[in-house]
Here is the input.
Amino acid sequence: MAAVPALCVTDLRKTYDNKTEALKGVSLSVQPGDFFALLGPNGAGKSTLIGIVSSLVNASAGTVSIFGVDRFAHREDAMRLLGLVPQEINFNMFEKPFDILVNYAGFYGVPRAEAERRAEEQLKLAQLWEKAQVMSRTLSGGMKRRLMIARAMMTNPRLLILDEPTAGVDIEIRRGMWKLLREINAQGTTIILTTHYLEEAENLCRNLAIIDKGRIVEQGPMRDLLAKLDVEGFVFDIEGALPATLPAIEGVKLHAENPQTLKLEMPREMDLNRVFAAFQQAGITVRSMRNEVNRLEELFVRLTNKDAA
Ligand code: ADP
Here is the structure.
């Protein structure tokens, strides 16, 4: 029997002010233990979806359940299973990290002694234990971000949701957050994060959904999505001079990166020999060639532009 999903969303719709259709019937399922990315450009509907799941935004239609608990019918029970890390840093800068965590847990009814035990555990995990008693204002940007995550973990959520956790932060800070998130996930917490950084989704997540204009345009394991990329790229180093006009090969995009390098894009199933034959006819001698790595970015652009194309 399949496990109860950590998150199950069906046909979720949201219209703001009777006009903006932010979600146009979104369905997705996230399995327990997963590290899941919700990827999409600005305005795609990511925050709206996360907002509805975490009870900050009302839905217009659809269902949401968290570990089988209906988010609309049993809101409080569902919210108890969930931790949320908002995009903006919103703790009191004049409190100490230890107090921020203990008070947060207290607000959710965790007894004091237990809250202190958890605060120590989470601060150590987030590599903030040395900073437990300093004014939060003095923490670095990366530490503040990790403190936000540690705080969300204080209620022992089974599902941790992060809304663009690394938007606008530099790569060092992002790496520190990724490490912490991987550890949290390894300890059994299901994680969903929204991001528009492809590198982040690729680095962290096993499964993903791509959302664009209020619809899920693709969903599945990261590696399957990458394999789906139906175009392959090659780079050719050329011996001698290139002809004045490059050969036209049907279905192939070819351009000279510089006088010695040709870049080519072609359908994955196409026979590369056709390219070599055309090169030979045009008097182009290939010294070496290499495969360009499939970038999630390419996939993303392709998927989200497919209506426009
Ligand atoms: P994302 O998080 O992917 O950037 P959002 O969920 O914030 O996307 O926005 C989806 C769409 O809904 C956008 O067109 C946005 O302008 C609109 N929208 C979001 N929040 C509101 C709101 N509170 N009132 C009206 N329109 C909104």
Observations:
- The radius of gyration is 24 Å.
